[in-house]
Amino acid sequence: MTTQPPPTGFEMFEETTKTYTNFLFETTQKSFEQALAMSEKMTGMWLENAKKAQEMVQSTALKQTESALQMAEAAQAQMKTASDRWVKMTKDYSAN
Q1: Structure pTM?
Q2: Which of 1, 16, 29, 71 is the most exposed place for a label (fewest CB within 10 A)?
Q3: Is residue 7 within 8 Å of 15, Cβ to Cβ?
């Protein structure tokens, strides 16, 4: 049975440095992956909110257009009624 000599100071330093470097690499990689996942999630949320905002704007614009058309139709009906009354009044006046 042979016993190994204890590691030298440099070997201990080298092993510690490798271990620490691997630890830093792994934690940095995990942090990067988490940041990337969060960025993708935020991008998805921004896109979803942008779509909802666009739908809301389109819905509002459609409602405003429908309201304007209804107001125009009401104004047209009032003008026709006023015109009919004017014609009737003119005929009645001419008949007398």
Answers
A1: 0.49
A2: 1
A3: yes
- Among 91, 36, 29, smallest CA distance to 83 is for 91
- Exposure pattern of 21-36 as b/e (b: 16+ CB <10 Å)? eeeeeeeeeeeeeeee
- Residue 41 phi, psi (nearest 5): -65, -45
DSSP 45: H
Cα separation of 33 and 69, whole Å?
54
Give the whole-angstrom CA distance, residue 8 versus residue 91: 123
One pLDDT digit (tens) per residue for the chain, 96 residues: 678 888 888 899 999 999 999 999 999 999 999 999 999 999 999 999 999 999 999 999 999 999 999 999 999 999 999 999 999 899 888 876
Tokens 């080298």 locate to 14
